[in-house]
Every structure is written in structure tokens, then in C-alpha cells.
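*** Residues and shapes ***
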Amino acid sequence: MRNPTFWWILALVMLLLDWYVFQSLKTVMQNQSERARLWVLSIHWFLAGLAMLMVLVFPYASILQDSPFFRNYVFALLVGLFLSKLIASAIFLTDDLRRGITWVILRFFSSGAQELESGSLRIPRSVFLSWLGLGLGGTLLGSLLFGFKNKYNYQLKRIKLSYNHLPTAFRGLKIVHISDIHIGSLQDKYAVEAGINKVLQQKPDLILFTGDLVNNKAAEMEGWTNLFSRFRAPMGVYSILGNHDYGDYVAWPSLEAKQNNLQQLKQIHAGMGWRLLMNEHVVLEKEGQKVALLGIENWGAKGRFPKYGKMQEAYPGTESIPFKILMSHDPSHWDAQVRTVYPDIDLMLSGHTHGMQFGMENPFFKWSPVQWMYKQWAGLYEEGSQKLYVNRGFGFIGYPGRVGILPEITLIELV
């Protein structure tokens, strides 16, 4: 968003948050030396002023708007600082509500009214709540900074999926599922190549990519095609488009330019040896038995994500095939249409959410803020005989890191 008004309003909100944090910093530093207080409070306002300056300059400076370093790191730091101060301010607000309620009780319901009027009775800020707010905000910011180093920390997820009606020739079929490469965000080719090597080391029978190859433009693939064309599997490499692949999030000089961009991206898929499925299906055959692989364009049921996908074009011709796999970028498609209208789709593969690149996962607990929007957002989901797997994403966008939710390569074995 490059509307200057928005950025001026944001700077004002940041100033208010900074003032709020400043008040609590004074509280927790009240027993420190004058020199220590001066250093801490000066650093606070220096960083706050620098952040506000960058926010105010951004809509007018094309060099910042086009800079990958600014978009990937400086902007992420600004967002991290803003969210950290917002969380801290929520705790400070709790303290101020406590002080306000105490003031009302003393003023109207106790003998403290005279002391309040004379100014001899103060209701101090809570040092504990001030430390708590600063601690929570600092922990969030520290986590985001720590997460920078995890953006290429590819995790291999192994999963076996059991189906009674799976054709016997396809038992033991190994599928590598990846999603959301977001090539425009990637910078370290050596780290990415390590991820590609990890895919190939699994010796999959089939490689499936479920969309968002680029952030916005086909030109982002320049210098990367040789690397990703290394993907090879005996039964093929298949791909679909995600919401970012259409170029919907940038301004184009004309509709023709936008259409040409999409056409170039399709040619890139083909040039790398990937079979791009555009609302269609292919039949995989082995020992005279068949499995249908369907791939549709982006179809989103949440937010304003587009519905380019056409199951009514991809599905016909698969009715008699006993086992069906659907590649559909957005997992909200599963509940909204697939389960209700196409109950014989055995397995749907998606991506899109990235697990928000932030959350917590362990064998007993899985959480991310993205679950407030997406019911299915990472891992395996089952309803009756149907299964959905949501890949956490190979790349990243916006925030150049991962906290708790690491980049994923999924190895699926059908049994």
C-alpha cells in the first residue's frame, strides 16, 4: 500500500505506542542511575524516530519500494517493532485500567477523596506489569529476529496415508509434495540447492508442486530455472498456480502486460519440465491400473482470494477411476467445495497458508495465528475417507524468516 495518508496515520499510531512504552520504561528504570536512565530512554527515542522516519519516507522513495533488502529485512523489523509495542501496550493498558478503577473507588467510595484532591495520594504504575509488557514485547521481537536464520531450514515431513481402495500397483507410491516457493523472496542459492537436493534424495515416484512459484512476476525466475529444473521423477513433475502467480498484487501498465506475465510463467513451468495443470486432469497408469491426478487454478473461499479454479472442467473423465488426487493451492477449497460436491476425491494437496511462518508445533500441540482464518492450515486433516494435506511452504514472503513453523518438504507414501 503506497497511499501516503495511510503511512502518516501509521506513523501517528507508532508515536502513540512509543509514548506509552516510554512511560513504562521510566517506571522500570526509576531505581537506576541517572546515566542508565538517560541511555535507555535516549536509545528508545532514537530507534522510534528512525522507524517513523522510514515509514514516512517509504511512499515517496521508489528505491525503498523496489529494494529486496528493505522489503525483506527492514520492513520485517518495522513490523516486528510495531507488533511488539502493540502487545506491550495491551499489558500497559491493563495497568492503566487498574489505576483508573482504583482512582474511581478512592474518589467516590472511600475516604481517599481528600488525598486525591490535594495530590498527596498517587496511584503508581505497576512495576511488575510494566516489566511484563516489556518482556512479552521483547520476547516477540527477539523471536522474529531469531527466525531470520530458519528461512532455509528445510524440514522433511514423512507421512504414510492408508487407503483400502488404492490400486495395488500404486501401493508404496512415494510422492514429494512442495508448495509456495516464492522465488522473489529467495536469495541464498546454496541454501535453496540444499533443499532441492533433499527432495531428490527421497527418490520420489512423483513430485507435486501446489502453487505460488513467484511473488508477483515471472521475471523473478531469472537465474533460478536451471536449479528448479533439476526436479525429476519417474512418473513426472506436476504443478498448479497459486494466488500470487497471477500478478494480482502489483500495478501493471495494461491488462495485456499482466496477461503476458502469466503466459511467461506458464512457459517457465514447461521449460523446467513441470507439467502445469490448468483445470484439467491426467491419468497415471501402472501395470494396467489407474490413478487420476487433478490440478486446478487458485480457488479460495477466504478473504478476497480469487476463484480461478474450475472443478467442473478438471473432474469430468475421472468418474470411473478408483483413486483421485487433487492439487488445489488454497486449503479452504476442501470444506467449501471438494468435500461437499466431490466426495470421491481421496486426497487433496494444498499450501498457501505457510503456517503464517510463525507459531508453535510439538507432538501434542499445534498453534499459529493463521488458524483464526483457516480451519486447515498445516499438516494432515481427515473427514470420513477423504484426506487433506497442507504443506507449510518451501519459501517465504513478507517476513524473511520462520518461527516455530519451518519450511517443509513432504514425503507422502500411499499404503
User: Anything to note?
Assistant: Residues 68-109 form the longest helix (42 residues). The chain has a mean pLDDT of 91. The longest strand covers residues 155-161. Residues 4-148 form one domain.
